[in-house]
Amino acid sequence: MSFEGILGQPRAVHFLKHAVEADRVAHAYAFVGPSGVGRRLTALAFAQRLLCPEGRGCGSCSSCRRVIALSHPDLHLIQPTPPPDNPKGGVAIRIAEARALVHGAGLYPLEGAWKVFILDDAERMTLETVNALLKTLEEPPPRTILVLILGHVRLLPATVLSRCQVVRFRPLADELVIDLLTGRANLAEETARVLARVAQGRIGLALTAATDGWLEDRDRLITQLLEGRVDEIFALAEEVGRDRARVERLVELCWFWFRDLLILKGGGGPGLLMNGDRADSLSAQAHLLSLEAIASRLDQVKAVWAGLQGNVSPRLSLEVALTHLAMSEAA
User: Taking phi first (over 0 means left), then psi (-120 to 50 degrees means alpha), and beta for anything else, what does residue 131 get?
Assistant: First the structure.
């Protein structure tokens, strides 16, 4: 992935290209912004430019092809993983990865002019990991570059961020996301517009939602809520089982639905709706519910979401939440 393939981030791309061309590359960068807007793609394009023998990220040489394939010996992508003894445990970047990074940073590059270490979701570093990396950040070995990818500057200690050059990434404009969804994913414009609104400028999230059943889950969920189909809710909860990520998505879909109801009840226009293609159903339901009733349902959804961030059973959370909400709608 070359810089030319990065869409919607002109400032970040210009800044990094200029750093390479002027030979003023910093030893550490923090790529800060929401997920799904091109942070990781830009980090790989940056690595491609640094490791390309021609110095321009040509995309066709052996080095560039191996960067794209994540097989270049001077490129190291570090991602959060579950504990070795618990594949279903919480993911993090742990001390073992930090020690391997520190060791590798002290070695000479094998082929290229640089060694590039990319830490994806760097906010998931444990405190031990952060402490282990501080010395490398304070006294970086020559020809070594660290790229930390994170959502917000407050998610890492100031001792780390102060040693990094911060590069900001912004959400993409809705129209750009819609163009990409209709052009690359061959989606209908109405569907693309819904996904663009929900993704809030995160093209990666929109593309994932377009292919992993997001719309099907949404339509199924809305039908259950509107018609009070408790039996189908239990069937859905059984189908989801312990898939926490999918349960979180379903709860988020509930939040979007009642958020839209609140907007309509408050006099907002259809252009503000997440579920703009279901405006008729939303208008009909908003007419039946009071402002207080809608706010109460949002409180219920928020409580379920908070429980999911703890150790509550995903299936039980979904059953309780959807059953209560569906019965409320049917009442």
Answer: alpha
Q: Which of 2, 79, 14 is nearest to 42 (CA)?
A: 2
- CATH number, residue 21: 3.40.50.300
* Residue 287, amino acid: H
Q: Are residues 155 and 251 in the same domain?
A: no
Residues 6+ positions from 83 with CB-CB distance below 8 Å: 89, 90, 94
Which pTM was predicted?
0.81
Nearest to residue 37, comparing CAs of 227, 130, 168, 215? Answer: 168
Residue whose tokens read 């994913």: 185
In whole angstroms, give the CA distance from residue 60 to residue 267: 55
Query: Which position has the token pair 């809705």?
Result: 174
224 shares a domain with 140: no
Q: How far is CA 39 from the centre of its chain?
A: 10
Please tell me the distance from the alpha carbon of residue 10 to that of residue 166, in angstroms, as a whole number.
Answer: 15
Q: Which helix (H) or strand (E) holds 31?
A: strand 28-32
pLDDT along the chain (331 residues), means of 10: 86 95 94 94 96 86 93 96 81 92 92 94 93 90 94 91 95 92 85 88 88 84 71 74 79 89 91 87 89 89 80 75 65 49
**Residue 104 included in any domain:** yes
Structure tokens at 104: 């590798």
**Gap between the Cα atoms of 225 and 329, Å rounded:** 7
- Reading across the β-sheet that carries 144-150, which strands appear in turn? 75-78, 115-119, 144-150, 28-32, 165-168
Q: Which helix or strand (DSSP H or E) is residue 299 part of?
A: helix 291-308
Nearest-CA neighbor of 114 among 152, 80, 145? Answer: 145
The token pair that represents 307 in the structure block? 């429980």
